[in-house]
Amino acid sequence: MTVFGWLQILFVAALVLATMVPLGRHMARVYAGERTVLSPVVGPLERALLALAGAGARRSQTWLGYTTAMLVFNAAGFALLYALLRLQGVLPLNPRGFDGVEPFLAFNTAISFVTNTNWQAYGGETTLSHFTQMAGLTVQNFLSAATGLALAAVMIRAFALSGTDRVGNFWVDLTRVTLHVLLPLSVGLALVFVACGLPQTLLGSVDATTLEGAKQTIALGPVGSQEAIKLLGTNGGGFFNANAAHPFENPTPITDAVEIWALLAISFALTHTFGRMVGDARQGWALAAVMAIVLGGCLLVAQGIEAGGNPLLTALGVDPSLGNMEGKEVRFGSAASALYAVATTGTSTGSVNSMHESFMPLGGLMPLLLIKLGEVAPGGVGSGLFGMLVIAILTVFIAGLMVGRTPEYLGKKIEAREMKLAMLAQLILPATILGFTAVAAMMPAALASLANAGPHGLTELLYAYASATGNNGSAFAGLAADTPWFDVTLGIAMFLGRFGYVVPVMAIAGSLIGKTRAAASVGTFPTHGPLFVGLVTAVILILGGLQFFPAFALGPIVEHLLIPTGQTF
Amino acid sequence: MSQHPISAPSLLDGKILAAAALDAFVKLDPRRLVRNPVIFVTEVVALVVTLVFAKDLATATGTPLFDGQIAAWLWFTVLFANFAEAVAEGRGKAQADALRKTRSDTVAKRLMFDDPDDLAHTVVSSPDLRLDDLVLVEPGDVIPCDGEVVRGVASVDESAITGESAPVIRESGGDRSAVTGGTTVLSDWIVVRITAAPGTTFIDRMIALVEGAERQKTPNELALSILLSGLTLIFLITVVTLWGIAGHSGTIVSVTVLIALLVTLIPTTIGGLLSAIGIAGMDRLIRFNVVATSGRAVEAAGDVDTLLLDKTGTITFGNRMATEFLPVPGVSPQALAEAALIASHADETPEGRSIVALAEGVHGLAEPEGIAGANFVPFTAQTRLSGVDFAGRSIRKGAVDAVMRHLGTSFEAAPSAFRDAVDRIARTGGTPLAVAENGRLIGAIQLKDVVKPGIKERFAELRAMGIRTVMVTGDNPVTAAAIASEAGVDDFIAEATPQDKLAYIRSEQTHGRLIAMCGDGTNDAPALAQADVGVAMQSGTQAAREAGNMVDLDSDPTKLIEVVAIGKQLLMTRGSLTTFSIANDVAKYFAIVPALFVATWPQLNALNVMGLASPESAILSAVIFNALIIVALIPLALKGIAYRPVGAAALLRRNLLVWGVGGLVLPFAGIKAIDAIVAALHLA
After folding, report:
1. For residues A433 and A291, what is the distance between their CA atoms, to the nearest angstrom?
2. Can you say whether residue B265 is alpha, beta or left, with left for phi > 0 and alpha for psi between -120 and 50 degrees?
3. Residue of B nearest to A424 (CA)
4. Contacts of B230 in chain A (CB under 8 A)
5. Residue A11 to residues A4, A6, A16, A303, B269: CA-CA distances in angstroms?
6. Do A450 and A523 touch, CB atoms closer than 8 A?
7. Considering B67, B310, B347, B554, which one is annotated as catalytic?
8. Complex ipTM > 0.90
């Protein structure tokens, strides 16, 4: 660990902490349908949009109605994006004249952006027109994030309200989080980015002549605006193939720190929103503490390992003082790269400022672990919170009995129905990740896509399916993902990881919201103290760890243990 | 606690254990085992490994010694789980058998006409009785079926079900009209209207309950089984996919080893003990002479937030008692006490007895000679006074206004010390009596509800557990408040009618609180039915017994507190063993994962932190540990883990330390020890 590494962590942590309470409070008002500071500006638009939809569309829905609306909306978004990708050749704003996207790739990409994954099997600047980027991808960046935030609202209401079967209205929630949260934050952040030197133009590219006289085509575009929502919405799909390692997406250590803040800001603030809405801010802080502990632990390991350099290169005479610099940008260094890697995988964002594949085995294990723990530390916008709440429910169920009462969380009894649904949701992750990995690991057609053999190749596979299922979207690299097999299976994994998970979670919310909320007493399980924080952390690590430990042992762990033998992959 | 109807069999009762061991094999029937998914999966994979073992032997290939041992221990795992359940059931069966002896068919004297006044009857066998039949029961007769006394009064020996040898009075009308089949009339005769069809009597239901014949999973047990099944599925996925994932690096993992990994990961410990814990919880309640009509009620007892307790009999002794003599100026306490003692000599009411007891006990007085021949003035509703004319003394005692009227004066004219005393008594919830001798007021006696000793401490315990206590009384608010503060209850309902109770329960429930109460009267029935835990007194009416979800055979309302503790203990045992079971997995991973892959990647031996002898012995040791831990925890599952009345945070800390941290650490030591033995015996 370097001094610079510590300073950057402190700086980002302070930024996140400073915005957590005001942003969290603001979102609580947005969810509650109250006036916000932005109402004078976006209010007319909000009213106009909702009036357009008609009064019937504003009535509070049951969980099923809400979920159906969400699914229909996302299905429409998928169809639209797919059409856009296929037809981009005949659509406007295509200065470089790209053709329509191939069907498999279009399928994969459309699912990827609708599910907030932003897995990119394509190279942005060499495949997509400005129109596709702006009207297709950026729009979905907003809407998939807004979908996540709307779903989180339902889960929060499940605990905040009682004795009703109405969970809110999807269209109202979607409109309000977009207009009051995502849009204004993105506009502000985009301006900051442009001020920091990110390009924001509709030009396709400029041609430059290098000092040696070679011709170079430098791709340009509306980078600043897409960058803002890509991070704030934990989307992660970069304008450029190199993502945030590209100097136009992330030019300086300052933009780097701001980007990391943008990754974490909303997900952490949501815990405060939760605490406020359930009427006990400590409950939110406890969840935030769990997220911070898991994230911080992985960060310390990753930074420590990466700062140590690669012993094999050190043995060859490379100065290890900069740490392991393979696949990293010199302007960030190993510490900031590790921080970015952890933040982007902890939040299901998936943008990268360095190549995770080139991390040391255990350093690279940390991003993988964060994804596999279920993207809850702090997770994607909205999805992180409701994922964490599902884990909190499981924790309360397992440990809550130990106080001699049937389990309850925030006064809501956790019974067979909730347990059934929670286990159903929890099954999606291992079934999808391990299932597809196991099949791919034995399929020559899939293995042909791997750049590396042995444990490293296995990690590439595992990472790809974990990233897709966890809706992260980052790649371990080294995997040639644009093949029919991977386009389709990763597409299915993204779909299951998002909607297969969300539907049972919404059903849990629908069940909980009808229950009476019992008052807490000294006899009830305390869910705000350090003990609960430790318990939830343990459940995340044990449940997540136990599922994936054998696979990890065969991937990064054995690779790490092989370093002293000089065997690399 | 009073006598037990059936003494608790010891944990190591040889007969029960032998029967249970046999039963463990009977329970291997997959149709029965499928109700317990974790153990069912274990049985299926045990069968698979057995087939592998058979193939090894038949083809003389593979590793028969290893496969055979794994197969054997997997079968043991299933058998141990079955054994745990069988032991718990066996203890219940022992009770049921004892109860069944009391249920031998008897004859009944069925009235010929549907008229309790016409005692003409025919003798029929008790199974031939129908609902609403009238039967005559005379001294020495066994009451043939549950019913209600419609005529007469009799003393009944109910020791068959309650264990209490003192006979109880059963009479028509009022709150003591219910009789139970199998009990015996000792004196007098009664006419009983049958209220339960043969085979559905109280004893029949008790037998069915303790035998577990009607046992269904309780709500929390069901939810926990879902969690355990879910975990089993997750680990099934982990293990099955490992085949392909390991195949990537060319590792061929044997079926036996994968199965060993699966069985050690799925929560067999809690899966194997879950039903035993549930049965044992019901069993503990029965040993406390409380019969729950469903397991759901026992769980609900653990969740109770508010206890509704009747003042009389629960918080205070049944009657008001004299606690102090307060003389007017110029009269010594001793003189007042003596006068009161003489006046109360013939007063057989509990108040009168308590005055005698106070005078004799505290003031050391003895009854004067010749008192028996005195002229007693009995209490009448008109005078509201009683007293005695003896040896030239005319002593009267009674309500203050009655004594004033008797003296021809008014309360305002009485000495101020007397007025203050009376006011103070009334203010603190007591009842003042005035005493006059020879036309002169000599003082007051304080009659008070006496709070049972130790009850305040129990309420403090309950408060520490997060349970509110609410006293229900017919007293006026002033009296009620005074007793409430003396007993240390959190709230009280004064001048309570049955409707008030019901309303209070409903309002608490709308705030999500669970309520427990006990009651015996017919007018308690709606409240008993509304309460989440309603304990009816065995001495109560049939209506009350039907409405509640538990019946206390000792008719001791303070037992509500024990019932809550038993419910909590049941849930805690479940939670602790679940935590233990899951925490165990960490060590098992460190035993098996390196062993799985060490042939392909020798470097993975670095994960063999326990330094186990060989891959085979590591796997075998983990499987053996996994099986033996079930047996080791059977006594705990049956007895329940220790429960202390402290707050949830303290309980959680303690149990987490013991079962969570213990569950992480213990298997490391246990597997290492077993591995040492396995290696020493060259078993693997």
Report:
1. 22
2. alpha
3. B230
4. 419, 422-424, 426-427
5. 10, 9, 9, 16, 47
6. no
7. B310
8. yes
Among B336, B310, B217, smallest CA distance to B527 is for B310
Range of the domain at A225: 3-279
Q: Give residue B106's Cα distance to chain centre.
A: 31
Please give, rounded to a whole number of angstroms, the shortest distance from the CA of A386 to a CA of chain B.
Answer: 19
| Pairwise CB contact (< 8 Å): B648 & A526 | yes
Q: How many domains does chain A have?
A: 1
Contact A542, A398 (CB under 8 A): no
Length of chain B measured in residues: 684
Q: How far apart are CA B469 and CA B488, in angstroms?
A: 9
Whether residue A265 lies inside any domain: the answer is: yes
Q: Could you tell me the two tokens for B333?
A: 């306490």
Verify whether residue B132 is a known catalytic residue: no
pTM (predicted TM-score): 0.88
Chain B positions in Cβ-Cβ contact with residue A557 (cut-off 8 Å): 604, 607
Give the H or E element holding residue A272: helix A253-277
pLDDT digits (tens, 9 = 90+) for A182-215: 999 999 999 999 999 898 888 777 888 888 888 8
Residue A77 maps to a domain: yes
**Residue found by looking up tokens 């008030």 in the block:** B500
**B223 interfacial to chain A (CB closer than 8 Å):** yes
Contact B145, B204 (CB under 8 A): no
Mean pLDDT across B622-643: 93
Contact criterion met (CB < 8 Å) for A441 and B238: no
Residue whose C-alpha is closest to residue B526's, from B499, B553, B551, B550: B499
Q: pLDDT value at position B212?
A: 62
Helix (H, G, I), strand (E, B) or coil at B518: strand
Radius of gyration of chain B, Cα coordinates, nearest whole angstrom:
34
Task: Compute φ and ψ for B435, nearest 5 degrees.
Answer: -125, 130
Which among B588, B596, B652 is the top mutation candidate for probing chain A, defined by the most A β-carbons within 10 Å of its own β-carbon? B652
Amino acid at A191: L
Whole-number Å distance between alpha carbons of A393 and A370: 20
Question: Taking CB atoms and an 8 Å cutoff, what residues of chain B touch A525?
Answer: 648, 652
| Helix%, strand%, coil% for chain B, nearest 5 | 55, 15, 30
Do the domain assignments include residue A266? yes
CA distance B440 to chain A (A): 57
Burial zone of A416 (CB within 10 Å; 0-12 exposed, 13-18 middle, 19+ buried): middle
> Could you give the CA distance from residue A218 to residue A198 in angstroms, rounded to a whole number?
14
CA B574 vs CA A355, A452, A527, B278, B602: distances in Å: 47, 48, 20, 8, 40
CA distances from A478 to A236, A252, A461, A551, B55 (A): 18, 26, 9, 19, 43
| DSSP secondary structure letter of residue B112 | S
Does a structural domain hold residue A365?
A: no
Tens digit of each residue's pLDDT (9 = 90 or more) over B11-63: 667 888 888 999 999 999 999 899 899 999 999 999 999 999 999 999 988 88
Q: What is the pLDDT of residues B532-552, one digit of tens each?
A: 999 988 777 778 888 888 888
Task: Please give the pLDDT value at position B522.
Answer: 76
